[in-house]
Amino acid sequence: DSTVADRQVDSVCPYCGVGCQLTYHLKDDEILFVEGRDGPSNHNRLCVKGRYGFDYPRHPSRLTTPLIRKPGVAKGLDPDFDPAQPLSHFREASWEEALDAAAGGLTALKAEHGPASLAGFGSAKCSNEEAWLFQKLVRTGFGSNNVDHCTRLCHASSVAALMECIGSGAVTASFMQAEQADVVILTGCNPTVNHPVAATFFKQAAKRGTKLIVIDPRGQALGAYAHQTLRFTPGSDVSLFNAMLNVIVSEGLYDQAYIDAHTEGFEALKAHVAEMTPEAMAPHCGVSAEEIRQVAREYATAERAMIFWGMGISQHTHGTDNARCLISLALACGQTGRPGTGLHPLRGQNNVQGASDAGLIPMVMPDYQPVSDAQVRSAFEELWNTELDAEPGLTVVEIMEAIHAGTIRGMYIQGENPAMSDPDLDHARAALAKLEHLVVQDLFVTETAQFADVILPASAWPEKDGSVTNTNRQVQLGRAAMPLPGDAKPDWWIIQEIARRFDLGWDYTHPREVFAEMQRGMPSLDHISWERLEREGSVTYPCPADDAPGADVVFSDAFPTADGRARFSPTVPLPPDEPIDGDYPTVLTTGRQLEHWHTGSMTRRAKVLDDLEPEAVASVAPGELRRLGLKPGDALTITTRRGSITLRTRADMLMPEGMVFVPFCYAEAAANVLTNPALDPYGKIPEFKYAACRLTVA
Ligand code: SF4
């Protein structure tokens, strides 16, 4: 019977940072269906992606052999190019030839122009071990710290604020702690869409009496369970949060004992917010002073309260300031370090936490140890038996600028798709086209791979063993369930083969050996061995002993700063980089849909998901549609200072007037053609959540 599975393999979902555990049910090495398992973050639940998102490993357009660009074929997106028929632009090659060409182009550029001429993007879709190897290759082979990944487009600003204020970039408590909280603030996030199984925990908590407070310009499904919603004016976050701090200070709602015991700088914060009364800030925020007061009081007077945030907070030029405000709220009210309290930036990709921990970041080594610190470098130099560059590397958007400037000439991109995910795509794609040598390692001929000189066919998540770390700091093990198709290879093997051609002499035979090396360089992995992961499936870091569970809630006694204290970091409200005006009167915001993942390379190849959401749509408030004289489904053109796209409209009651939402997964109407590349100065994250645009009938 072709519908009855002949074996099961336990693993973890490859999509979002919730990290749901699942079981593949296979027949003849094909995934028949997937079931949720009783993992700590999902309790048997899965969302639609975790259930139906597994057509991609065996999709007909899957890359199964290395490819080399044919001579004379221009680089760039060609509207006639068919990713399922890549041989019009590329020719097949043996692994030996492809690896020699891939590494040869990079080593030649390094020899002629020096280490700073190369850069690499690793992937939050790959395992911790693959991330570790990739950053090690860039630092020890390429010879610079020019290595980054999509955290730069995601929570880099949150991490910058958390590192500055509390000394650690990870969450202080898991999202399961929401069930013990009296008040939960959700701001700049839409968990039902982006962290669907985490949303079920919030919903259950609300049903049991937790007061949910949803603070976001857009409405959302969890609004139905909310005690209060604040739909503020886009871009006015810092004004709103400072007004809440003003209430907490002026009404004496802060926790002086906690502040005295655990923090520094509260007096300066008090003085700083003194003028930012709800009455002064409310006109900027589009909500009433009384609503601001109510929310501040609810949060400050709760016995246990948590704050969760997403990219509505982080993806602004003031993203770090947004996160600083949220941290100040928690510190002022003593809402960290106890069950049911905490700060939790909801991580996006399945392994963005782990890839960041493992060092795919240009200014820090693994475990966020600064590359500029001589002691840190010396420890890694000893571990890797090499010399390391002391200069922090360039970030994602800076690397694109450096290509235009002629500084960066060659790149190795593993599993990321900047030709869809970077802001101001025309500019980013022009940079990719300008590269003298580009190696792309992926499952498909993605938009980025269309710019490559060499394409290396990689492994899909169900085809490999590896660990990943979810938003809760839970390190979990994924297991190989099916063979690699054709001549595709494990990612760790490919990175190692490139490293060997940089004379690095690596000799790993399995990811478990890489994990053992990671444990030597990453204190966060103390007491979490590969064998333990095989046995237990999931272990939370930090973990105090080989036989003890990890810490779900951290920083009860002290923060991991030099003096054990957290710091308040006052913030000044700033306008968005590109405010709306008469020519561009509407706010464009971008993000994900429930059914599709990031740039769509996996989910648009999943039949059920693609049937549910088959084409690009722009979500617009019904009143806005009427004003434009459009009906739902009519074509709309959206124009910003960087470009235009045309797509269908969807009437969305949850959208505010004056705003349009476009998901960024559709290549045929790529939202990032429109977005603003202006960066937050601390996290270097672009302002994906606010660009001035104009809507016109197509
Ligand atoms: Fe996968 Fe996230 Fe859905 Fe869980 S919630 S099944 S991890 S996409």
TrEMBL record:
UniProt-listed GO biological process terms: formate metabolic process; respiratory electron transport chain
Keyword terms: 4Fe-4S, Iron, Iron-sulfur, Metal-binding, Oxidoreductase, Repeat
One Gene Ontology MF term: 4 iron, 4 sulfur cluster binding
Chain coiled-coil ranges: none
GO cellular component, one term: oxidoreductase complex
Segments forming domain 4Fe-4S Mo/W bis-MGD-type: 6-61
Family: In the C-terminal section; belongs to the prokaryotic molybdopterin-containing oxidoreductase family.
Protein name from the UniProt record: NAD-dependent formate dehydrogenase catalytic subunit /NAD-dependent formate dehydrogenase iron-sulfur protein
Organism: Franzmannia pantelleriensis
